[in-house]
Write a structure and sequence with these properties.
single chain; Alpha-Beta Plaits; 2 domains; 3 strands
Length: about 290
């Protein structure tokens, strides 16, 4: 199974689980007047929306390089990863609106044994989704899957907080529900900001690979006197490298070209995420 097909499979599985979890929480939250459970449900719902966005983004990102996009389309995956972060900010707004409505309505959350059973069951599903997405995302160097796993991880923390709030309500602290709702909203916004910040770094061509490793590999090739001006760009699983290589001024252009080919092959062998290496050949004065 190729990379795109495997990512698509993961997103479809997690989408189905997220829809199940969110529908359960939202319906039960409204029935019991629990703003914390309802808010947690909306958070899970946006997990599902991000899965759909991911399916679209992965489809676009899988297109091969063309005349207008010589470096390929992989950064579309990064763009849709930022969309996940934006969704988390929208989730925060929805949660705070629910908190406000709860305080104005004066409804007191009803906590039953079913409340704990539902929250614990959905917590177990979220733990599975997070572990599954993160493991596959790291193996495939998929920024979107890793970010989506982080999104679901925030859902785990939120659900844990909701369960703690239900315990406090059961112990006679009714305002625990809206307070937990506010904390949930702030936590979601913080996670969204982190995703946006990390994804934006890739769009502005942050260094993607340790240049010390590239220097070490290049200089280990026979015929390379020195190398400098090493630059990298791209995404985690699709990195482009360019560097300046110094060789003896006495060798032919053909010989220098063969050395550059060996440098390129060695860098790709050492760093599988590197897709292309451009070597600028310079004469050494040593």
């Amino acid at each position: 199974m190729d990379r795109t097909a495997e990512i698509r499979k993961v997103l479809i599985v997690t989408l189905a689980l997220n829809v199940l979890v969110s529908a359960t929480k939202i319906v039960f939250g409204y029935l019991t007047y629990s703003v914390a459970i309802t808010s947690d449900g909306f958070h899970s719902l946006f997990d599902g929306v991000s899965n759909i966005a991911g399916l679209v983004g992965i489809y676009i990102a899988s297109n091969p390089p063309d005349e207008s996009h010589p470096y390929g389309h992989r950064k579309y995956e990064t763009v849709f990863t930022i969309f996940v972060g934006v969704l988390m900010f929208i989730t925060c707004i929805e949660i705070l609106k629910d908190v406000y409505a709860s305080l104005r309505g004066g409804h007191e959350a009803s906590v039953t044994g079913a409340s704990f059973i539902i929250m614990l069951a959905t917590l177990g599903i979220n733990i599975f989704v997070t572990t599954y997405e993160k493991r596959v995302g790291q193996r495939l160097n998929s920024e979107f899957l890793v970010a989506d796993a982080q999104h679901t991880m925030s859902d785990i923390m939120v659900t844990t907080g909701v369960i703690a709030g239900l315990v406090l309500i059961k112990l006679g602290v009714p305002f625990a529900d809206p307070v937990i709702g506010v904390l949930v909203g702030l936590f979601v916004a913080r996670a969204g900001l982190q995703i946006i910040r990390e994804s934006t770094e890739a769009l502005v061509d942050r260094t993607m690979v340790d240049t010390v490793v590239i220097h070490e590999v290049a200089c280990s090739i026979e015929g390379v006197v020195e190398c400098h001006g090493i630059r990298t760009r791209g995404t985690k699983g699709c990195v482009f490298v360019d560097l300046h290589m110094l060789v003896s001024p006495d060798i032919s252009v053909a010989a220098a070209h063969k050395i550059a080919d060996r440098v390129e092959e060695s860098i790709k062998a050492r760093l599988p995420e590197v897709q292309d290496v451009v070597v600028h050949i310079e004469p050494s004065d040593k």
